[in-house]
Write a structure and sequence with these properties.
Radius of gyration of chain A: 36 Å
Helix content of chain B: 10-25%
Distance between the termini of chain B: 31 Å
CATH architecture of chain B: 2-Layer Sandwich
CATH superfamily of one domain in chain A: P-loop containing nucleotide triphosphate hydrolases
Radius of gyration of chain B: 13 Å
Strand content of chain A: under 5%
Structural class of chain B: alpha+beta
Mean pLDDT of chain A: 88
Largest sheet of chain B: 4 strands, antiparallel
Low-confidence stretches of chain B: 1-6
CATH architecture of one domain in chain A: 3-Layer(aba) Sandwich
Structural class of chain A: mainly alpha
Low-confidence stretches of chain A: 1-9, 819-829
Shape of chain A: elongated
Oligomer: heterodimer
Number of helices of chain B: 1
Number of strands of chain B: 4
Largest sheet of chain A: 5 strands, parallel
Distance between the termini of chain A: 78 Å
CATH topology of chain B: Alpha-Beta Plaits
Strand order of the largest sheet of chain A: 2-3-4-1-5
Order of helices and strands of chain B: EEEHE
Strand content of chain B: 25-35%
Chain lengths: ~900, ~80
């Protein structure tokens, strides 16, 4: 199989047959007493059908649920015992009737390659809370997947399931839920082996209606006792009686033989089949599912479809898996006994049959089943080839956990000789977060590649192995926070990977970009990310988060328009056009809000944040919540809602998750600066004092902004004059470094603080130059917000700028944001415990001018609620109870 | 989980009913003996480890054959 991505065939397609709701057989025995028991169990937490093979669990459910519209069915096989596969099928089954209930959990599953079963289960249960129409989910053959992890997820589901969903589990072994507790509470509807045994009446009905045999009462009684009411045994008995004249005598002979009844009867049945049908049955018994072509390939018999249809008609334990009669399976018990029979009759044959099945599945793109049969055939090398050549497609379609479960079945000796397989193991382990193991397999890949004759199935991957391993090492380094090592490995990967290999260059160019950003080289960062986004433009799951990072870098470079285009294009291409809400889409709207915020377009920023929140969970990347809260806090501060801003910063900090993407505006620094600018110098200083220990952990780009904020605090704390020369020196260094590397956003922030430092030191010429530089740079880039916040203490300096200069013009634009009124809190409202914000002063001025609240809202293009909040805040700070008192107080304090 | 050493042990598994000797191959090469007086089949033989034992028991479960008892015989009690 080609290891090319994005081919026509998905790497790990869902097998539709798993979801097929079996239809009751024509002439099947109606099991009314059991159907009544099931119907009476509505409202219980769990419906459990627990009995050995062949007791008619699935048939009973098919009968009971026939014609019901709100039923989802999942027939499990060992292939779903790997948790991510299990939940993929589980959610796909429910999605057929209640798609909205599965979206959040499906997104979570997509985003977490190695899922926590309880977390997926919880997300699913939460989504059920808004479902109102009841439905039923059947998990058939649950024993096939029962393991610790899936069991925990199911137990959580049973404990927390809202009544809207009825969970039905059919299994040969009890699931790991607290059955005794459920029984004590009457919270379970349970059908066990003794319920499922055919009664004598049902035996009689089965023989006459289903098997079309005329058996007298003695015969019925004798068959009932010989089979102990076991439906599968009875069906086999019926088959062996067909075409016999002497039913009584044959039934008597059953009683005289105490062999395991299924084995005994199967011999009888097989003995009466034509030789080609006998061979067909025996040879195809190794197959988990059957279709005509596959059966012909495996059995060597022609006429597969006709044979399958004949077997179904003759009650020979063949069950259709779709309406079209394309796929079938044998009754599990029947297949198992047939396999035992062929295993003893022709011991060497089984591996040959599995080998043929593997080849057929591989040729038809069913990799998982091809691997299963290759392993069953004992053909380890072939299985390893299949696993190796499927890696790239499984990685691209994000099924690393499933692929790992395949690869882990291989013996260590087979693995050790295969460089590509080891590299695949490393990447898959990185994807599921196991960094330590991944590192070991990278070394093993290098070691295997260095051998004189490495075993290679996928030569395409082998030719680029050095690049693939270097990319993985770059990923590992960045995940460990070592940006410099990331750059070394990513550069090496890009050196050795062909320039045309867009797929494999995507990851190292993105990593190079993030690492370059982390160390402050924004130009290289932008180039690398832009390359990555362009190369993987058809892969939304890559392009969405990469576009967010690219936009942030562009903002850092002062390219607001370009950042806005980056975000908007990604939203258009990967959100609007696909109609999907993939993780990272909601983050892009935060990016748009950030661009508007920097331009001081607060309403647009608010709208973008609201859109981001509406998109919500499925579209949110893992870092969405603290990113959203941080910008919401900054927006609240800009609106003058300082208390709200602090509360939002606190929540953002709670939600913070460290990741490979740098946090260029760390939450703590933003909060400390807000404290400083609102006169709470002690708390800001306390933040500075807490930083010493953690500073070394910051990436250089994070450190730069923290240093700027710490400098501003140092400049503005009382009695700072003696420390100013050192601070000035530090800021000069930051300004020159940021200027050299075009870190425009930080250059503006640092320039303003530098101007303050010169001003405090009494060097007004340099202060004027610094503020002029910052205003010029900000004006060119269209940044308003950092200036609005920063220039307040510099008003007297700004007044001395040449009125004809671009800086003075831009200062006018920036200062116009405040309307008339004083700017520096010290000059106005001295004596207030908490100074009014510029916006509060502006609103109060309009109130004094006689405007009504809604008129103010219209004038300032803010919401009515925001106007009221500003007014309430202003009253509170002025100690006023009403308009008149507030205006009087403000006038007496020279605020108005 | 303890650091239990899974040395191959020998087991005796009793199931209800008569299972012909040819099934021995299907059950990982165990010997099969039918006891007329109890109506039970006795399987004896080596079992690689706990996982193999569970696999064996699941096979009885999947065939619908009732298990009567499972004994560990110890590694030397029967000559191979």
């Amino acid at each position: 199989m080609a290891a090319s991505p994005g081919g026509a065939q998905p790497a790990n397609p869902l097998i539709e047959a798993r979801f097929f709701i079996p239809q009751p057989r024509a002439g099947s025995v109606p099991r009314r007493r059991l159907a009544q028991k099931l119907s009476a169990g509505t409202g219980t937490r769990l419906t459990l059908l627990s009995a050995p093979a062949g007791f008619g669990k699935s048939s009973l459910l098919a009968q009971w649920l026939e014609g019901e519209p709100d039923v989802a069915w999942l027939a499990l096989t060992p292939a779903e015992s790997e948790p991510s596969q299990f939940w993929r099928y589980f959610l796909a089954a429910v999605a057929r009737i209640r798609p909205s209930a599965t979206e959040a959990a499906a997104s979570q599953l997509e985003a977490t390659p190695a899922p926590d079963c309880i977390a997926i289960s919880r997300t699913f249960v939460n989504a059920l809370a808004v479902e109102s129409r009841p439905f039923t989910l059947v998990l058939d053959d649950y024993h096939e997947v029962d393991g610790l992890e899936i069991g925990e997820g199911i137990a959580f589901l049973v404990d927390n399931l809202p009544p809207v969903m009825r969970l039905v589990i059919a299994t040969r072994s009890d699931p790991p839920v607290a059955l005794s507790r459920l029984r004590a509470r009457g919270d379970i509807c349970e059908i066990r082996v003794d319920d499922l045994r055919f009664t004598r009446e049902e035996v009689g009905a089965f023989l006459s209606a289903t098997m079309r045999l005329e058996v007298n009462d003695n015969g019925v009684a004798s068959l009932e006792s010989r089979t102990e009411g076991w439906p599968a045994g009875l069906q086999l008995a019926g088959l062996s009686l067909q075409g016999r004249d002497d039913l009584g005598a044959v039934i008597d002979s059953f009683g005289g033989d105490d062999r395991y009844i299924f084995d005994y009867l199967l011999d009888e049945v097989l003995a009466h089949q034509p030789p080609d049908v006998r061979q067909f049955l025996l040879y195809t018994s190794v197959l988990g599912r059957l279709n005509a072509g596959l059966c012909e390939a495996v059995s060597g018999c022609s006429g597969g479809q006709a044979t399958l249809e004949r077997l179904e008609r003759d009650n020979l334990f063949v069950i259709p898996l779709d309406q079209k009669r394309e796929w079938y399976r044998y009754h599990h018990l029947f297949a198992e006994v047939l396999q035992a029979a062929i295993g003893t009759a022709e011991p060497g044959r089984l591996s040959e049959l599995h080998g043929r099945a593997s080849a057929w599945y591989a040729a038809h793109g069913h990799t998982g089943e091809a691997i299963h049969h290759a392993l069953a055939a004992g053909d380890i090398a072939n299985a390893a080839d299949l696993i190796e050549t499927s890696w790239r497609a499984m990685d691209t379609s994000r099924h690393p956990a499933t692929w790992l479960s395949w690869a882990r079945q291989l013996p260590a000796t087979e693995l050790a000789a295969r460089p590509v397989l080891n590299a695949g193991m490393a990447w898959a382990l990185l994807s599921v977060g196991d960094l330590e193991q991944a590192s070991m397999y990278l070394d093993a890949a290098d070691a295997a590649a260095a051998e004189p004759a490495p075993v290679v199935a996928d030569h395409t991957e082998f030719n680029v192995l050095a690049g693939v391993v270097a990319s993985a090492r770059a990923y590992l380094a960045q995940a460990n926070g070592d940006a410099r090592a990331t750059i070394v490995h990513a550069r090496r990967a890009l050196d050795v990977l062909p320039a045309t290999d867009r797929l494999r260059r995507g990851s190292p160019s993105a990593l190079l970009g993030i690492a370059a950003w982390a160390v402050g080289d924004l130009e290289a960062a932008e180039a690398a990310l832009a390359d990555g986004v362009a190369a993987r433009s058809d892969d939304s799951r890559y392009a969405l988060p990469a576009s967010y990072v690219l936009g942030l870098i562009q903002v850092g470079r002062g390219e607001l328009d370009r950042a806005q285009r980056t975000y908007q294009r990604a939203i258009d291409v990967h959100g609007e056009a696909t109609g999907q809400q993939l993780p990272g889409l909601a983050d892009l709207h935060i990016g748009l809000a950030d661009v508007s915020y920097e331009r001081n377009e607060l309403d647009a920023a608010e709208v973008a944040l609201a859109t981001s929140k509406e998109l919500g969970n499925p579209a949110a990347g893992p870092h969405w919540s603290y990113r959203w809260l941080t910008l919401a806090a900054r927006l609240a501060a800009a609106r003058g809602d300082t208390d709200g801003a602090f509360a939002l910063f606190d929540r953002a900090e709670e939600q913070y998750v460290r990741g490979p993407v740098p946090s260029v505006r760390p939450i703590g620094a933003l909060r400390a600066r807000l404290q400083l600018r609102h006169g709470n110098i002690q708390d800001a200083v306390a933040w500075v004092d807490r930083q010493t220990a953690g500073l070394d952990l910051l990436q250089p780009i994070e450190r730069e902004f923290v240093d700027i904020v710490m400098a501003e605090i140092a400049v503005r704390r009382p009695g700072s004059r003696s420390g100013v020369p050192a601070i000035t020196e530090k800021l000069e260094a930051i300004v020159s470094a940021a200027s050299a590397s075009s870190r425009i956003a930080n250059l503006i922030e640092a320039g303003i603080v530098l101007a303050q430092a010169y001003d405090v030191a009494g060097d007004s010429a340099r202060a004027r130059q610094a503020v002029e530089d910052a205003l010029t740079t900000g004006g060119q880039a269209g940044f308003i917000m950092p200036l609005v916040d920063g220039v307040q203490p510099l008003r007297s300096i700004i007044a001395t700028l040449d009125p004809a200069s671009p800086a003075a013009a831009y200062a006018a634009t920036v200062l116009a944001e405040f309307g008339p009124g004083p700017f520096a809190p010290a000059a106005s409202g001295a004596g207030l415990p908490e100074p009014l914000t510029p916006r509060e002063i502006e609103v109060l001025g309009l109130v004094a001018g006689g405007m009504r609240n809604h008129e103010i809202a219209e004038r300032l293009v803010i919401s009515l609620a925001t106007v009221k909040r500003h007014i309430a805040n202003a009253y509170g700070k002025l100690g006023a109870r009403n308009r008149v008192e507030a205006i009087d107080a403000a006038r007496s304090l020279d605020i108005l | 989980m303890s650091e239990e050493k899974h040395q191959p042990g020998r087991y005796e598994i009793r199931v209800r009913g008569r299972l012909p000797g040819r099934w021995g191959a299907w059950f990982a090469g165990m010997s099969l003996t039918y006891e007329t007086h109890s109506g039970e089949t006795v399987l004896r033989g080596p079992v690689a480890d706990q996982a193999a034992l569970h696999g064996l028991l699941a096979r009885f479960r999947d065939l619908g054959i009732p298990i009567v008892s499972v004994f560990e015989l110890g590694s030397d009690s029967d000559p191979p």
